[in-house]
Protein 1
Amino acid sequence: MEFLGYVSALIIGISLGLIGGGGSMLAVPVLAYLFSLDEKVATAYSLFIVGSSALVGGLKQHFKGLVDWRTAIIFGIPAIVGVSVVRYYIVPALPEVLFNIGDFKFSRRMGMFGLFAVLMIPSAFSMLKANKEKQNVGAVKYNYPLILVEGLLVGVITGMIGAGGGFLIIPALVILANIEMKIAIATSLIIIASKSLLGFFLGDVFTIDIDWQFLALFTTISLVGIFIGSYIGNFTDEKKLKKGFGYFILVIALFIFYMEFLFK
């Protein structure tokens, strides 16, 4: 199972290198079901893996001149606050059993992984539909109140499920900051990297024991996969790959529902 887990780490990286996103959503189920980590540790490690992968991708986009750093900072600060507060205060305080319905016990694991599976569905559909390129018809304009709220919300969700939330960030940047799709995609990588890594280091490092050797190995394999995927991407149809991966994410979401709520 561990060997399969490390192979999956490589697949996560390859998918990120091929389609530029979405692969990070595989980190939580791989950590939970192949390495048997509990919900706190799996989502914590996922934050580090997601953040490291997004950082590599974001820096590549920066050198192409596609990152809007002002937007990244404005959106990123409330997101960082949200994820850090959730990982340091809320997740450690959650009880093992959240509530009871008769004899049915709704556990913390069900809550965290259930929310994760629910949010995988819109992420999958965002891959299935073709992104329409938004042409910048004017200067970048910031809706500061909504950006603050959206950034905080994305941070809270990231803290709970351990995933980047790019499918939430990208449309928010396009709508709330009036920037082009390709700029939004590049900028979202920097936001994901900053909030995921800072959330991990400001929250989880102080609340759980980190197996740094395992985390470093898993992350390194994923990063190697990114470069392999980037190379393979030169010879493949990105749109078809993205659509296929969208269906795969839907299958994983259904698998998580089955494992957490139906499998006994």
Protein 2
Amino acid sequence: MLTRRIIPCLDVRDGRVVKGVRFQGLRDVGDPVEQASRYEEQGADELVILDVSATPEGRATAADTVAAVRELLSIPLTVGGGVRQVADAERLLAAGADKVGVNTAAVERPGILTELADRTGAQCVVLALDAARREGDEGWEVVTRSGAHRTGLDAIAWARRAEQAGAGEILLTSWDRDGTGHGYDLELLAAISSAIRVPIIASGGASGVDHMREAFDAGADAVLAASIFHDGVMTVQQVKAMLAERGVEVRR
């Protein structure tokens, strides 16, 4: 059985780690280098850094933050936010990222996924898919620009198209659940996982180990969490120990 991955997420704005609810009301929760080092010591399998203000502000992700984190980090690092062209991705990979996440630019120009896969390999290309439930609860639509823009694009259809275009992994965030602590959107997870073959990282809403186990049962290959780690609710070691008790295969 493949081991399931536990991935802390650092949402970064102006060089600081922040956290909010549905991408709004961001509060400062620490220094990215200190946080990254702590999570690796705790046994995190990977780390994700998302520059949450890069796309809304029309700029590129701060490569100096990536480089500073990489100096102390040996586990895989995914970086996203503000990637609009291959050169942006190459700059982040050169700074120390192992994988690059793309959201808004891919929705606006899906060909960038193919360009990135051709240049860097599909294993380096992560589609960051932010999905919100449609009104009337009729499926999910893709949202971009940190949740500010509803695209009308069907989330399941977009996941399929992105996989075909070259995405090697999907970071699936429920906009409705982000920061709420109400658990991952299991229906969304199950729908996406049954439609594609590439790995899925579940994101948005975890407040405990049971939420993570449910996400794995729904089809996730990895779970992303922020608040429970940033706020000291649990450490990565504690999460892994409790998941193992529940029969989830994790790397110890």
Protein 3
Amino acid sequence: MRILLAFLLIVGLSFYVMASSLSRMVGDFLFEERITNDRAQLEILAERLSPSLRGRDMDALRHEMLLSGSEMGGRVLLLDENGKVQLDTHGTLNGQLFPVSEVKSILVLGNQVDYGIRDVQTGEKLDTDSMLFLSRNQGQWESYCAAAVVHESSIIGVLLLISPVDAMMDRLYLLQDQMMVIFLLVAAAALLCSGAFSHWFTAPITGLRRGIQRMSKGDFSARVSEKGSGEMRELARAFNSMSEKLETLDQSRNSFVSNASHELKTPLATMKIMIESLIYQPDMDRDLRTEFMTDINKEIDRLSTIVSDLLTLVQMDSQSVKLTRENVSIAALCKETAHRLEPIAQQKNQRILLTLGDPCDLYADKSKLNQVIYNLMENAVKYTQQGGQIKVTLVKEGRDALLTVTDNGPGIAKENLPHIFDRFYRVDKARSRESGGTGLGLSIVHQLVLLHGGAIRVESEEGKGTSFIVEIPLHQG
């Protein structure tokens, strides 16, 4: 609003200065034109009257003055070298002295012509510049134009033309009126255009400001309209993108806190029930007591695993995890992991098949890569039915190592695939808890692969198994 007012003030002042300058220029032109015309006519008349005045031919003088005065539209006075009126076309000043400055300028100072504007009532002489700023009702004005009557290089008299300037002033007032109307029209147009421009220009900014205010109050669902100029549209898009990411992050955080609380609360509640049973049943059977204590120990292990996984994720989120790099063979890690999981696979009558086409040596963090491989292969063994098969394939593709862990288990529903790497996300919550899963393993795997500059994706179809594909650059930056 302040910018708009400042703009209007600048436009108004600029137009006022322009209008004043134009009015002054037109006024000066009209006065100059009037003065030039009066002087030219009066000088011609003075030259014609010079012989008659020298010869005192009053009849000829009177006839010529009456005729010329009628043509020039004013009152003509003929004064002698002493400033006394010899002839007045109105006949009221004959024989009287007429000591006005225009006459004195010729008789005393020796000028050939002089011009002035005077008040009809008071006779006060005004500067022509001030005429432009007089009120319309501020008196009436007449022009006094005096010219020397010369005979043989001597001034023998003065010819004075007194004529009204009302017509000229009316033209000036009309010009001022027109300029005022134009000024008001331009001001109104500028106001409308400025208002429209201001609304068009500031509407996106206002919307963006309101969106920021909503976001500052915790409302991350705030979105703004992507309108305006190219830069404003890009800014609105950037804001909406940021707002969407913050909303997703906020939802993820809330979900994470809720899930973490639930995951921590579940083993605590189980342990509390068991411990209370031990407290309030001191004569409990020895075998049952041992079973309770064993279950409590398992819940403590599970709680410890959850806390450990949470700490790992927190460290990764804060980017405080450092990679301890050394020469690593991914093929060797796959063999080692398969050897460790073989007893579990044999219990379920499963087979782990390794197809290692390249050792895929690289300079990376051995323990973290081992955690990635172990987690993926353990999940395959854990969630594949009795008699299932787990295939581990390692090949080199260009500058990357491509590791694929495939099982022929129950698979994952299509709607669950986009969330498979979310924290605490479980496809089958009941089975996952029974198997001791925390719902954080794949999230950790995903973060560890990203730390090595790689990528991981999942392909699955219900009833046909699941494949996890990991791509890791062999030349680590």
Protein 4
Amino acid sequence: MKENETIVLKSPDEIEKMRKSNLIVAEILAIIKEAARPGVATIEIERLCEGELKKRKVRPAFKGYRGYPYCLCVSVNEEVVHGMPSRRVLKQGDILSVDVGIEHDGYYGDAAVTIPLGKIPDEAGRLIDAAMASLERGIEKARVGNRLFDISYAVQSYVEENGFSVVRAFVGHGIGRELHEPPQVPNFGTPGKGIRLKAGMVLAIEPMINAGGSEVVILDDGWTAVTKDGSLSAHFEHTVAITENGPYVLSRP
């Protein structure tokens, strides 16, 4: 974190507003999970999301962000993050990472899941399980008095123990009145290092993990990140408030 960056602590009132935004994200992710199946094009999932956002009168966080043209990021198989909706039709055995962000009443919500489509290869299942479990390990360390990289190390150590790698090119982030606020939250680091965690911090913790090496490349669309070695990738994210009573997962229903 740069010295001139200020971490904005949220009041209990603000955290409850963020809870509302994140519950909307969770609702939309649940609807997408039901709709994502073999034979569906990723652009259809984008249109579904857009309709759900309009119904709830909330604004997509990603559309227009640095010129990104869609509400959703949909990343298939070797795509790590920032995959763009298209006419690509999902197939049996694919894994689909979906990232949803919204702004409601001045506050942002952000979460992601990786969805298996029908029967998937064993390695893909293990990858998804490891990504999901590593997120829970990271959340468990989001406690007052811990250090930021305690979260990072909890994710990294679990992923690597299971034979996978963490992506280093992209990280989690603070969130609140802006989609991306300080501090950055890497999925790798040395325990006991980094800033001291305080009540009122709200972090988007988001392991991005690969079945092969950690390196990624960006496709010609300028957004889609894929694994350099073509291996599968999985992505999970929750928005988490740090409170005196422990981690409060705002995007968990």
